Each structure stands twice: as C-alpha cells, then as structure tokens.
Amino acid sequence: MKNILTPVLLAIISSTAAYADTYKLDPDHSNARFAIGHFGTSTNHGGFYNLTGDITVDPQRGTGQLKVIIPVASVNTGNQQFNEHLKNADLFNVEQFPTMTFASTEWNYVDGMPQQVTGDLSLLGVSHPVTLTATQFNCYQSPMFDGATVCGGDFEAVIDRSQWGMDYLVELGIPKEVKLSIQVEAVKQ
C-alpha cells in the first residue's frame, strides 16, 4: 500500500505545483501613475516607468505574489521643472530613496480572476499596507514574445500620502489623497 500511495501523492503535489506560474514584468508595458488634486482647481498627473519585478499567479489555490520595483527617478509629468521638483527632498527624495516597491501579501480571486491584491507599499523608507483593486486582468499568447503567455492588468487604490511622511503643502490645500494606478504585464518564465 505504501508503494502505491507514494507515486499518487507525488503526482498530486506535482500537478498542484504546476498551477502556479511565474511571470517577469515587461518594463515596456508596466508603469505606475498617480493623480492628485491641485488647490481644488485641477488634477496633476504623473507616472513612473521601467518597472521591474515578478508575478506568480495561482488561481487554483487563490494565491499569488506580486513584487513591483518602481524607479522613482523615472517620474514624468510632461513638465521637466515639475519632474525635478518631485524628485527633491520635499517629495520623493530620489537621492536618498531611489526606488519604491509594492510587495503583495494576499490575493483575492473571484471566478479564477484576481479582484484585489493587498500588500506593502514602501516609499520614503516607510511601509504601509495598501489594497489594489483590479479593474481588469487577462492572460494571452503574445505575438511580441514568440507566443509566450503574458498576464497582467490594471490595479488602483487611493492612498493617504501623509502616511509615508509626504506632507508637502497639505496645510496649504494640496490633498493627502492620491490615486495610484499600477499597470503590469508580465511574461511567463
């Protein structure tokens, strides 16, 4: 009996492990963007580019892992002077903190698709939990990667920037609330 169970258990473990697929972020199709009010008149937008990281997706078990590394110096608002101000010590302090990261701690699936990803956002040397909501997610065979499977989606959250010590101009009317949108596409490894 022992000899029969061992191969069966190994087959079950192997087939279960096969469900978890690992993907490497494609920096050309991954970015993090932000939107923040500007004295109640308009909304400033900007983004970070050339993101790196990995995703592991396991819809069978309802789990996953996402690690995104965001190079802060890549910030782009379309205005060079504003870009440089965002990089200084008043805001993102690129010299001391060149990257921010998001590392997932929990995934929530509905019908085999990720709906929310909770994790730790590290910014300015401080980490706080953030829950990103998936606004879309899909996997497809990519003609750009010789038919390799690519999975990704759009995720968003509203965060309170003051939790990370980014209080610049809060007392003068710039909101604490920032809409954060993260777009990731990753190639199966």
UniProtKB/TrEMBL annotation:
Entry keyword Signal: yes
Residues making up the signal peptide according to the UniProt record: 1-20
Keywords: Signal
Domain Lipid/polyisoprenoid-binding YceI-like residues, every copy: 22-187
Domain of life: Bacteria
Record protein name field: YceI family protein
The organism of origin for this protein: Thiopseudomonas acetoxidans
Lineage, highest ranks first: Bacteria, Pseudomonadati, Pseudomonadota, Gammaproteobacteria, Pseudomonadales
